[in-house]
Amino acid sequence: MKNGGIVFVVDDDRSVREGVADLLSSVGVQVKTFATADDFLHYKRPDAAACLVLDVRLPGSSGLELQREIARSTEPLPVIFITGHGDVRMSVTAMKAGAVEFLTKPFREQELLDAVHHALAADEVERERRAWAADVRRRYELLTIRERQVMALVVSGQLNKQIAGVLGTSEVTVKVHRGQVMHKMKADSAIELLRMAEAIGIVETEHHPSRTA
User: Fold this and answer.
1) What is the pTM for the complete model shown?
2) Spatial CA neighbour of 78 closest among 30, 115, 41
3) What is the pLDDT of residues 93-142, one digit of tens each?
4) Domain containing 146: what range?
5) Which of 32, 56, 98, 105 would be a feasible disulfide site paired with 63, CB 3.0-4.6 Å?
6) End of a domain among 120, 136, 152?
7) Residue 1 lies in a domain
8) Are 78 and 52 in contact (CB under 8 A)?
């Protein structure tokens, strides 16, 4: 793992927190523990790949509530549930909400280690995706209004002649704008440009621009 990663453990049982921390530390993983969901939410996370080992039943906000809170944030984390009070409905709810694993205490140490390794690897990939999308967004913001209009029409699959008709301009002018879009976005093909557009969520209204320059 790049930079080793960090695992956050949220469990109101001190012995469980310490046991999980000792296990993960023994294989070189950095660990930070919390007794409640609120304690974790008030903690400023470092800029590193991470995952959350989370008990379902907690004082105050439950583990499932914390999972939902994290999922709504700008930097969601992979979640591994551990519980001594799990049931089928609870596990289904957690997994549908995106949990990596749902382990019932007592669980095998290797099960947790495997889940943590998978979760940290997944978060590393997701962090790289978010960083790439943020860079794409910065490039997109450098485009002029007309270049954004052309980009939207290009990724919708329209040819230069069709784009010229929509914009009320010449095909030559469209080619110039299209070239500028590809250059500024650092895209080598229309397929790559489409992937970028999907990453930043170009809205449908941009496919129907005004005919004014």
Assistant:
1) 0.77
2) 115
3) 777 777 888 888 888 999 999 999 999 999 999 999 999 999 999 999 99
4) 142-207
5) 56
6) 136
7) no
8) yes
